[in-house]
């Protein structure tokens, strides 16, 4: 279904927290595109859930770590919906804990490919589509779900922490570069996972995408239930 009457959100990932965030956008009246590495058939349950809220939804088979497929993915969103108004990047590599000093290049490269390199270049592809195609009267936003890891050490997940710290620097750069375009950029940092986290993050993301906080572009939102508050 192609439409230009509703804002369109793209959420990387299609299950767990990803789907929880996508569901929040569907509830808020957005058409939603979700991505995943599984076959399109495996994404139909998620699409049906999103469309139960009266919006259009699509699942695009796409490995965010595969930069060569980014243009195809963005084109797929535009062909279905005609626009992109919000990108929420949450897809991330599951890291096997291990000693910091035992980190090996192969594991490091896999994490960087998904959590940093893939996310960086997919974000750039979507930003370009926003600047060219999206309607000027609709708020536009880039929201990245990172982690407390850029500032909180986790010696058993060194590769993950490094990727998130570098990603945080990237988003500050993007926010600065496009701050005069009307596209707002935010970084959301969850803490230790809680049962209600998906719903919490969904509410935060839809609030950030609303346009009401556009002047706060470049802001980091600590969404960890207070766990990052400094303590004596």
* Spatial sequence of strands, sheet with the most strands: 3-2-1-4-5-6-7
Number of domains: 1
Strand segment count = 7
What is Rg?
17 Å
Terminal Cα separation, in Å? 55 Å
Structural class: alpha/beta
Shape by Cα distribution: globular
Q: In percent terms, what proportion of residues is strand?
A: 15-25%
Q: Considering DSSP H and I runs of 4 or more, what fraction of the residues is helical?
A: 40-55%
- Helix count, per DSSP? 6
| CATH architecture annotation | 3-Layer(aba) Sandwich
Element string (H = helix, E = strand): EHEHEHEHEHEHE
Indicate the CATH topology.
Rossmann fold
The stretches of 5 or more residues where confidence is low (pLDDT under 50) are: none
Please provide a written account of the structure.
By secondary structure, the chain is an alpha/beta fold. The protein has one domain (8-223): Rossmann fold (3-Layer(aba) Sandwich), CATH 3.40.50. It contains six helices and seven strands. It has helices spanning 17-27, 44-51, 70-81, 105-133, 158-177, 197-209, and strands at 8-12, 31-36, 57-61, 86-89, 140-145, 183-190, 220-223. A seven-stranded parallel β-sheet has the order 3-2-1-4-5-6-7, with helices on both faces. Helix 1 (17-27) packs across helix 6, helix 3 (70-81) packs parallel to helix 4 and helix 4 (105-133) packs parallel to helix 5. The longest helix has 29 residues, at 105-133.
């Amino acid at each position: 279904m192609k439409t230009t009457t509703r804002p369109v959100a793209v959420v990387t990932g299609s299950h767990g927290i990803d789907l929880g965030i996508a569901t929040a956008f569907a509830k808020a009246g957005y058409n939603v595109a979700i991505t995943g590495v599984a076959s399109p058939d495996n994404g139909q349950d998620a699409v049906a859930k999103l469309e139960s809220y009266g919006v259009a939804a699509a699942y695009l088979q796409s490995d965010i770590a595969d930069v060569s497929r980014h243009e195809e993915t963005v084109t797929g969103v535009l062909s279905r919906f005609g626009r992109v108004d919000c990108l929420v990047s949450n897809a991330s590599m599951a890291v096997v804990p291990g000693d910091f000093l035992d980190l090996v290049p192969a594991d490091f490269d896999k994490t960087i490919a998904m959590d940093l390199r893939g996310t960086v270049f997919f974000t750039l592809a979507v930003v370009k589509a926003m600047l060219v195609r999206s309607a000027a009267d609709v708020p536009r936003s880039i929201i990245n779900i990172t982690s407390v890891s850029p500032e909180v050490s986790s010696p058993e997940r060194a590769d993950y922490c490094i990727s998130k710290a570098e990603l945080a620097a990237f988003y500050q750069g993007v926010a600065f570069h496009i701050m005069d375009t009307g596209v707002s950029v935010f970084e959301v940092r969850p803490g230790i996972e809680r049962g209600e986290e998906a719903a919490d993050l969904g509410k935060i993301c839809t609030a950030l995408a609303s346009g009401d906080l556009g002047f706060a572009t470049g802001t980091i939102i600590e969404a960890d239930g207070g766990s990052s508050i400094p303590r004596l």
